[in-house]
């Protein structure tokens, strides 16, 4: 095992231990939220778990999500968006989510599906330098669903962990499983004239110093840690993937105070 990978494992282990101790303290003082996963499973980005989930639910509704839609969550994590959606989708709608982290999927299967039978969670046996050492290459992964199975798909903080060829594959698969007229809402760190100018002044997490073709990486030794993609190249991928049209709503990450959310949002129509 390489030194950098070992350090990453040690860091994750220490973070998990600290969160587990916090979980124990909350349980002893009866301050746990029974609807939410334990803190030791919430390594899915910064911010308050419930507040961010509610914000993302509102964002999806803003961009066209209906309570009766057949919904696909690409990179469903440990239910950050699924949980608030249980309060929005009605009995005629459905939700399917998949993720590469098995224990995230298992928690959702055990704690969400028994209460909401139209919410289903699937493990994707796919490799990631950040989340999973073994598995199929993301460039070879076929979403485990038939063509035109969904009305609405979304991927929040998913493409920000995929390099260019992986993004190409996932966009193509997203288009394949969407029904005609369906839409994809996905978030990115987009590289354009504005963001490239401000990169050196941003927090170090968002400077993406390592260039790799059409993308820039936060960590060259761990590509999935954070990825920004050239906007023009992404637009071409969207078109090549079979989407009929798209629109971009810039986020706040690159200093735009009026951003739709933190990351840039791309909405694509099938």
- SSE series: HHEHEHEEHEEHEEEHEE
Which range does the strand content fall in? Answer: 15-25%
Portion of residues in helices?
A: 25-40%
User: How many separate helices?
Assistant: 7
CA-based gyration radius: 18 Å
Quick structural summary:
Helix content is 31%, strand content 21%.
Question: Would you give an account of this structure?
Answer:
The chain is an alpha/beta fold. 31% of the residues lie in helices and 21% in strands. The protein contains seven helices and eleven strands. It has helices spanning 3-28, 49-62, 82-85, 102-111, 164-177, 193-198, 231-240; strands at residues 70-74, 94-99, 119-123, 150-155, 178-188, 190-191, 210-212, 215-217, 227-230, 245-249, 264-269. The strands form two sheets. Strands 3-2-1-4-5-11-10 form a seven-stranded mixed beta sheet, sandwiched between helices. A four-stranded mixed beta sheet has the order 6-9-8-7. The chain is globular. It starts with a helix and ends with a strand. 38% of the residues are buried. Residues 13-21 have low confidence and may be disordered.
SSE layout and pairing:
Layout: H1 3-28, H2 49-62, E1 70-74, H3 82-85, E2 94-99, H4 102-111, E3 119-123, E4 150-155, H5 164-177, E5 178-188, E6 190-191, H6 193-198, E7 210-212, E8 215-217, E9 227-230, H7 231-240, E10 245-249, E11 264-269
Parallel strand pairs: 1-2, 1-4, 2-3, 4-5, 6-9
Antiparallel strand pairs: 5-11, 7-8, 8-9, 10-11
List key phrases describing it.
globular, 4-stranded mixed sheet, 11 strands, 270 residues, alpha/beta
